[in-house]
Amino acid sequence: MRPVREGSKTPIAALVALTIALGLAACGGDSGSTAGEAADGGQSQGKNSGSSATQGSGKGASGKSKSDGGDQSSDSGSRAEEAADFTPKKHRDSGGGSKQFRIQGGDNSVQEFGKEADTQEFEAAAVALHNFLDARAEGNWAAACGYMSKAVIESFEKLAAQAKQLDDTSCAGILEKLTNPGARAALKAEAQKADAGSLRVEGDRSFVIYTGLEGTIMAMSMDNEDGEWKVASLAATPLN
């Protein structure tokens, strides 16, 4: 099951190529536990005390978005309403740091990236990750875009602007077209199971390392923008 559509039309193919070039391709495996298979609501089954990720604001980058076809001004308002309808959920994360994720004899470059973040920063990044996964799993593309980095959004919108066949060249519209509707169950399951354990930080870049489906260790790239952590990829990368 693949969350990214494999369209034959040039614009969509180009968008998929862009996700691959940026390290954003969301390729799902048979078990649904690989990168990009994140999902709606639910609560992580974290065991740690004290690292409960409370919900952040459900702000989306949707005020400038347009829906598929129709009057773009009214569509933009529709996307804004869609983002406003998103209610962040509470998740509990196990925490514990990156040492638990190190693989003997394996590539631990992510696990050893930068330094371990403090508890407050870890929780803030975990909230952004959970909100992104939850919003995307609900199909609330506008809200999901609100938790994505400017670099990712701008890359999508620049390429999509050249694709005249696309009715909606906003972040929300592109994200919707790149997500395979058949992956909805996998997206929901991933968001429910996501259990953040570490945030490795170096400057404005970081990786949230979390446990996904069937114990798969995942790493999501994050960017710090004006003091807020944003998801800097469409898909997490499996580390084991």
End-to-end C-alpha gap: 19 Å
Rg computed from alpha carbons, rounded to a whole number of angstroms: 17 Å
Note the overall shape.
globular
Oligomer: single chain
How many structural domains are formed by the residues?
Answer: 1
What is the string of SSEs from the N terminus onward?
HEHEEHHHHHEEEEE
Question: How much helicity do the residues have?
Answer: 25-40%
The percent range for strand residues is 15-25%
The number of helical runs is: 7
Report the structural category: alpha+beta
The profile of the biggest β sheet is:
6 strands, antiparallel
Per DSSP E runs of 2 or more residues, the count of β-strands stands at 8
Unreliable parts: 1-70
Mean pLDDT: 76
Question: How would you characterize this protein structure?
Answer:
With 240 residues, this protein is an alpha+beta fold. The chain has one domain. It has helices spanning 10-21, 72-84, 119-137, 141-145, 150-160, 171-178, 184-193, and strands at residues 52-53, 91-92, 115-116, 195-202, 205-211, 217-225, 228-231, 237-238. Strands 3, 4, 5, 6, 7 and 8 form a six-stranded antiparallel β-sheet that branches. A hairpin with a 2-residue loop joins strand 6 (217-225) and strand 7. Mean pLDDT is 76; it is low at 1-70.
